[in-house]
Amino acid sequence: MPRPDLHSTRERLREGRSFAADELAAARAIATSPACASAFLSTRFEAASAEAARVPADAPLAGLAVSTKDLFDVQGEPTRAGSVALAEAAPAAADAAAVARLRAAGGVVIGRTNMTEFAFSGVGVNPHHGTPANPCDPQVARIPGGSSSGAAVSVATGAAFIGLGSDTGGSIRIPAALCGIVGFKNTARLVPTEGAFPLSTTLDTVCAMTRSVRDAVLAHEILAARRVAISEKPLKDYRLAVATTQMLDSADATVARAFERTLRLLRDAGARVEEIPLAQIRDWARSRPPAGSPRPRAIPSTATCCCSTPAATTRACAPASSAGST
Q: Which CATH number fits the domain that encloses residue 198?
C-alpha cells in the first residue's frame, strides 16, 4: 500500500497519530529494502535522526525525509554526479542552495540518490552504480527514467516525501511519468543552481518530485522561496491541446489506453481537449537523416572539404556517397 503524501503525514503528526521518528524509521526500512536497490548511493540515517529531533513541530516539512540527487552539494559529503570519474572529489564545504532551503523548512536529508552519469540521459541507466528498478512493476526490472532515477524511486516507494532533482531536458518529468508520481519543472531562474553540478548552465532547472500535486506546490514554494497563487478557475475554462502528429506513433497499447483514459477523464471534468496536427513536427522529422545513415567523417586539417574550401581546422564532412551534387 502506498504511503500517504506529505500533507496527509503532516496532519497525522499534528494530531498525534504519528511521530517524526516513526516516519523516519519507516523511510529507513523502505530505503534499505530491495525496492530501493541501487536507488541510493549513500544514506545518512543516524545524522537524519539527530536533525529530525531538532526540527520544530510547526516547520513546513516537520522533520520528514527528503532525498537529494547526487549532483547537489551536501555539506561534508563529496558530490560525484553519478560518476566514478569524481570518486576522489573533496567533500562539499556547504549545502547547495536548494538543499539549504529544504533543511531550513524542516526537511531531513536521508541520502544521495543515484542518477544517470553526469545527468546525460533520460533513461536512468548507470553502468557504475546499477540502475534502480521502476517500482511500478516489481516483477520485471524496468527503467525508471532519468536522469533523476534514484530520486523518482525514492519518492515512488515512499522512502522520501520529496526527491530533489534537476531537469534540463526532462530529467524530472521523465522519471516522474514513468514511476507514476508528480514531477514539476518550474521556470529555471526561480530556484538557484548554486552548489549543483552543471549540465547546461542556461537550461538546468532545480526542481523536485513528490507523490501528489499539493506536495509539489509546497516543494516549489520552499525551493523558490515564494508563495504560489492557486487558480480558482474551473476546468471548463482551460483549453488543452493534444498534438497528434507523430507524438503518439508507436505508443505501447497499454500506454495508449492510459493516455486516452486520462483525456476522457479531463473531458468528463469539463476541460476542452482539442487535437492539433502540428505538421511542423513531421517536416522536421523528414529533414533529419534516415536511421542508419553513415556518420560524418573527420577531415584532417591538411585536406580539402567536399565543397572545395580549404579546411583550416578539422571539420565534419558527409561521405561522398551521400553528398548532394552541386
A: 3.90.1300.10
